[in-house]
Amino acid sequence: MKKKIVIVDDHRLFLEGMDGILASVEDFAIVGRAYSAESAIGVIRMARPHLVILDITMPDMNGIDVTKIIKLDLPDTKVLILTMHLHRRMIIEALKAGADGYLLKDSDSKEVIDAVKIVLSGLIYLSPPVSTLIVRDYIRKLDMPIPDSAHLNDLSVREREVLSLISEGADTRMICQRLCISRNTVDSHRRSLMQKLGCENLTDLMRFAIREGAVNLDE
C-alpha cells in the first residue's frame, strides 16, 4: 500500500518541486497540497495521510501550532518539518509539539526521500546540521556541575515551580503570569535558585534548568 503524503508550504514553486521529488517514488502518493495553515488542517483531516510535510513559517499560523493540532486529531500521522531555519529554540519547540523530523530546505532530493522514508518507518529524522547543533548544545550542558540531591531538596515548592518553568523556556513575564507573582518575586526566586544550585550566573541557571527540566524536582 502506498504511503499517503500531504505537503504544506506557502511558496507554490517550492511545494511543486517537493511534489515532483516525492511523486517519483513508487511507494508514495501525494494526496493533498495546501498553501496555508488554515487550508492545510482541512486537507489533512479529510485525507488522513500517513505523513504531513510542513513548513514552519506561514502567514496565518506557524507550523508548530499546526503540528500540535495534527497530533491531537490524528496522533498516528507523522509530521516532517521542512524549513530554512536552523535555530535551536525552533527545533526544540517543533519536536516538543510532536514533530517526527526536522529537515532543512537546502537538502537535496535524495536526503528528502531518505528523510521521508525514515520518518514513515517510525524513527525521528534530523538534518545533519540540526543534529550537530542539538548534540553540541547537549554536550555543553553536560559540562555544567550537577548539584547533589541535598541542594535539590533544599528548593522550596515555589522555587521548583520557577525552575520547571525556566526549563520550558518561560521568560520573566510568562513566569509572573503562570504563577501569579510579581517580577521582583521572580527575580528573588532566581537569585535563591542560583545560590542553592551553585550557578554563578543566570546563564548557568538557565542551562541547568533546561538540562534537568522537571526530572529531579519531585524526588
Could you describe the 3D structure shown?
By secondary structure, the protein is α/β, with parallel strands linked by helices. Helices cover 55% and strands 13% of the residues. It is built from 11 helices and 6 strands. It has a 6-stranded parallel sheet, with helices on both faces. Helix 4 (88-97) links the parallel strand 4 and strand 5 (101-104).
The low-confidence parts are: 214-219
Number of strands: 6
Please give the radius of gyration in angstroms. Answer: 21 Å
Helical residue percent band: 55-70%
Give the overall shape, derived from the CA principal axes. Answer: elongated
Structural class, from secondary structure content? alpha/beta
The biggest sheet amounts to: 6 strands, parallel
Number of domains: 2
For the record, give the distance between the C-alpha atoms at the N and C termini, rounded to a whole number. Answer: 48 Å
Number of continuous helical runs: 11
Average pLDDT across residues?
Answer: 86
**What's the name of the CATH homologous superfamily of the largest domain?**
Response regulator
Subunit organisation of the chains: single chain
Level-1 CATH class name of the largest domain? Alpha Beta
